[in-house]
Amino acid sequence: MEQNLTKDINELLLLTKNQNIINIDDARNTILKMKKELILKQHKYKIWQGTGKDKRWKTHLPPNHRIIAKPTKEALEDAIVEYYSNGQDQKCTLKTLYSEWLDYKALHTNSSNYIRRIDNDWRKYYINSDIINIPLKKLTPLRLDEWVHKMIKDNHLTKKQFNNMQIIIKQGLEYAVKKGLIPSSPYADVAISGKIFEKQAKKPAKTQVFLVDEQKKIEQAVYKDFYETNSANSLAIILAFQTGLRVGEIVALKYSDIKGDYLYINRMEVRKQNKKADGSWGKCKYIVVEHPKTDAGVRKIYLTKKAKKILKLIKKTNLKNGYADNDYIFVDEDGRIHIRALDYRIRKCCNIAGLSEKSMHKTRKTFISTLIDENVNIDYIREIVGHEDAQTTYNSYCYNTLTDKMTEDLLEKALCS
Q1: Do 219 and 238 meet the contact criterion of CB atoms below 8 Å apart?
Q2: Whole-prediction pTM value?
C-alpha cells in the first residue's frame, strides 16, 4: 500500500511541477492530507478518548493489539500515520495476524463452535510450525506448497481434515490482501493432489444409526422415562425420528411453527463462547438465532400422524405441569431446554434400553437412511433435511438400518428367488 501510494504522490508532484499547474508546496500539503486520510480510513481499530483522569486519545496498533495514547486526537492520528508510513506493518506474520483475522472471521458467523474449531486447528497444526513466523511478504507459493504437503503427510490428513486445517492459511492470507499487507495471496498458486490424502473408511452403520430393532427398544425406553419423570422432553427423541431435525432446531421449535400438516423450520439454538484475552475460552452460553444452519435449512417438514400425536402429548403434559416459555415446545420448570438436555436424555434412554450410547444426531442419520431405504426421492429428502446438495445426503447420511438377519433375508430373496 505504502509503495504504491508514494509512487502516485511522486508522479502527481512531478506532473504539477512540470505543468506549473499549482504551487508545489500546496500540492504536497494536499496530497499528504489525502495520504493521511487514506491511512486512517484503513486503520481498522477504534479511536476513543479516555474517561476520568485519563483524557488521552487512544487506539490499538497491530500486530498485537497494543494500545498507544496521545494527549490530542490530532497527535494520535499523526502517530498512526507514522506507524504505517514507517513500514511497521510490513513485518507482519501469520502469527501476528492470526488473532486479528480470527476476530474478523467471527464477525461473519454466529457459530462460536466454528470459531473454536478453527482455534483448535491453529493450536494443533500451526502454533509449533515455522511457517507462522515468516513475514507475509516473504511467503512464496513454493514455500507454502512444500509446507502444506508435509503437513498432510505428517498428520495423515483426510480431505475433510485438510479442508478444515487450510482455512487459516488460505483465508488468513486473503485477509492480508484486503488489508493491503501483500498484493496477492501466494497460497492461491498452491495446487494439492487429491491422491495424497489419507483414505478414511466409512464408519459401520451400527455406530451411526439406530437399527430397526433398536428403534423399537429406544422408543419403549422413551415412554418409560416419560411416565416415570412426567417430563415431555424425552418425547423429543421420537419426534426426531419422525422429522430428521437437527437437535439445535428441535429445542428452538415453537407451536407457531406448526401450520396444518407441516412444521416450518426457520430458527435454531447455537452455543456461544467468547475467546478471552489470554487465549482461553469463556463459559458456554446457549442462544436462539432466527435462522437455520444454512440457507437450505429454511424448509417445511411433513408431520406424520405419529408426529402429530407426539406433539399433542407434549403440549398436554406441559400444560398439566404448568411449563411454558414464549411459545417454545420443549420446556421444563426453568423454561426452554437446551441441546445438552436432549443429548443427556437420549443417552439415558439408550442405557434404559440396553443399547450402546448414541447422540441425537444419530436420529437424524436414521431418519434419512430410512427414507432412502423406502425409495423416497433423494432431492425431496435433501430438501426436507436442509442439505444444500444431494451428495452430502448420500455420502454422510446413508446407512443400512436393517439388522444382519434382515439384510441376509433380502439377499436371499434378491439372488435366489
Answers
A1: yes
A2: 0.70
